[in-house]
């Protein structure tokens, strides 16, 4: 039946509203990607924030037989988080419940809770969730459960399958079930009794078939996520238990996971790690079985290719270069709740493998600086290989598992296959205790021959893993489309039939994520392969992993960095294919989402494992859009910045008077008219600040130390807002505090003319931006007698930008100066409660601890609103694209307790946006310190 997606779209808009649904070609394309090597463009994208919306979508989908794919964080590697039809994405604000039982043994989590956030809530209780995929800081509970994701420590004992207590689910027919609620189960039994019976029968049948049951038990003795979790059919008989456990690892093909209740696991208080360096892989593999004891929390293996890949790289131990050819490393971690037990554990480890020769003694360290270096080696592997791969290549991370006795030979076989098929860059690493190898290759998919080569490689891998070792083709990352063709080969016909029956019982019309896990197309793993055209050095390393989506301030508004990059790649692909018209069309259609709305905050770079810089690229992409007239305006502003800055400040003062006299409505109307005349007129709101002004300084006293103070343009343009309790401008407060602390304060005579250049840089005018920055640095160098006098800047973003110009004098942000120089000497009277913003510049400069330090010194309680990483004001962009700021701060008001009446940061423009959206005044931390030390 052909599906009329326009009708589906129209119906969805009626029930969900137009903001929750899109069939815009650019936005559909942007959601066609996950972290896998596949690309599938959905017809419609839905953002759902509550279970009603999921049910409404399902009803419409059912009526039209339109397939539905659920998506959490989209970090999946096997192509299971993308799909044709309707892509239902967990919204940015819903499904965020975290509820911990009184004894902390249970935690109930909404499906969109990020794994690391769940663990952060449990940490004070020395608990965590069992599953521990490497992507815990990005991936969401829905994806963790649906992939049966696991990592380094959890093995097969603490994954979702083992630790799930109950779940709230929505089935394809729209029925809801809470497997932890007797009432819900009774209602479900009444409405869906046939389903329960079919499941119980299937379990009975499986348990009555000793050959099949034995096969299932054998295969799940090691990690396995190939196909469904059919171990449930041997482990359980009661239908609700069966549902609970079949849902785990079902990759969105059986039901929607709304909430999950997990049994929590212990988070040990102490840990120590050691590197055991062996002369060869055989010895390393021999050491693994003796380490399969409770004293050992994790054993990670690095093969010789992995060691070579990280050798000589920044942050890696120098001695790696001295290791003999063919060496292999086991990184061993022990954890305990006290140091004595930990000591006993580490000694046991050393004794257990003392009979195997190592290249150096095995020495455990509980010093985070030392074991941090060991772990940097393991976690650096993927970024190094991903980041250094040739342009235009993809990164494929596969994971397979073997019984422990096969590890050494399987590694050798796998390495041979890398070379046979032309992937010499292949490395093997992984969770040795679980027999779980990850391997990374970086293939090109630019021709049919490339695809055939990959096909042949995968065929050989399957032959080796399945036929030679009876291992798992997938141990952690889920089957998806990548391994769907090998499910029957791995499991055999009987088990495969069971899986088909399971799918039929849950989803008889094949509505949910069709083609994932079970797929009759034996070539599906080499279809819909994502092209990877070269775009720009700043982003070419992108592997579309999605780690950057959590902190990007525009993820909820429109695009995340991953989507910006995917779109740019498509434009480039269209260009290269010769379809200039389509490329031009997409470029124009995507300009707002890709270029105009990026705040260039660079938070994505901090999160990115391969150091992409969307912020830098987007500024570069803005350059061609500067018209000749705009360039003339920019040139004029740069040349006459002192006067321009003064006029703006005076204009803001005038606006403040108009506002006071005429009120909100008239002022807004005047500004709206102004905006129609010129887009240089900002969007106005009642929290608009009045103009800023510079401060008078006392005459220099030679007996006192001096400091050169540069008041950045934010604080000298934006004065107090109507909400501010203090009528003084930022420069006035800074000078008051510095002089009271015993300093002569020296400011440049031409302060109003000077600027770090950010306002030109953000528009892509690098010429003026850099010239202004150089002018500023020269002025500060001269004034400070080439650095003899400390130089302090009062806006984090300005300090950051000035520092990128490699200044000849040391520039300090005011936060650093207050924290390091002033704070230790001051008597402080604490306030009760304040809110602290840790924005993008603080994060880029790694100054969060210093902001925190000042805040803690001055207040009893510090509130840091969860999930606010960047305010999205982006310099003066907040004046012209207020929707970015509004979206980034959409939740801030409800995250601030009513008793908290004041907020702090260290960047005036950001503070203006924070004030507007939080409802409380945000000011520079210097106001706080000045007030608390009077
Ligand atoms: C660099 C890298 C390293 C990785 N390391 C690991 C690892 O160590 N271990 C590991 O297991 N995985 C790993 N992964 C894969 C992936 O990150 C995890 O499996 C993760 O748990 C997926 O969660 P997600 O929120 O991104 O889910 P998504 O990718 O969005 O979705 C995963 C599956 O869950 C389904 N789904 C999502 N939400 C729901 C819902 N509410 N109801 C029903 N179905 C739903 C989707 O349809 C899809 O099939 C890695 C990925 C990358 C890129
Ligand atoms: S620079 Fe900031 S706004 Fe732009 S894509 Fe990166 S995180 Fe998002
Ligand atoms: S920009 Fe970096 S973090 Fe974001 S998707 Fe690409 S590789 Fe992943």
Report on this structure.
With 934 residues, the protein is of the alpha/beta class. The chain has four domains: 1-266 and 492-508, Uridine Diphospho-n-acetylenolpyruvylglucosamine Reductase, domain 3 (2-Layer Sandwich), CATH 3.30.465; 270-477, FAD-linked oxidases, C-terminal domain (Vanillyl-alcohol Oxidase, Chain A, domain 3, 3-Layer(aba) Sandwich), CATH 3.40.462; 533-620, no CATH class; 643-932, no CATH class. The chain contains 38 helices and 25 strands. Helix 8 (193-207) packs antiparallel against helix 19, helix 31 crosses helix 33 and helix 33 (848-858) packs parallel to helix 38 (925-932). The longest helix has 37 residues, at 641-677. The relative contact order is 0.07. Bound molecules: flavin-adenine dinucleotide (FAD) and iron/sulfur cluster (2 copies).
Overall pLDDT score: 94
- Strand proportion, as a percent range, falls in 5-15%
The CA-CA distance between the termini, in Å, is 76 Å
| Distinct ligands | flavin-adenine dinucleotide, iron/sulfur cluster
Structural class: alpha/beta
Please give the share of residues in helix. Answer: 40-55%
Strand line-up in the sheet with most strands? 12-14-13-16-17-15
Number of domains: 4
Q: State the total count of DSSP E strands.
A: 25
Characterize the overall form.
Answer: globular
Give the radius of gyration: 30 Å
Summed up, the helix count is 38
Low-pLDDT sequence parts: none
Keywords: FAD, Flavoprotein, Iron, Iron-sulfur, Metal-binding, Oxidoreductase, Transit peptide
EC number: 1.1.2.4
Pfam families: CCG, FAD-oxidase_C, FAD_binding_4, Fer4_8
GO molecular function: D-lactate dehydrogenase (cytochrome) activity; D-lactate dehydrogenase (NAD+) activity; FAD binding; iron-sulfur cluster binding; metal ion binding
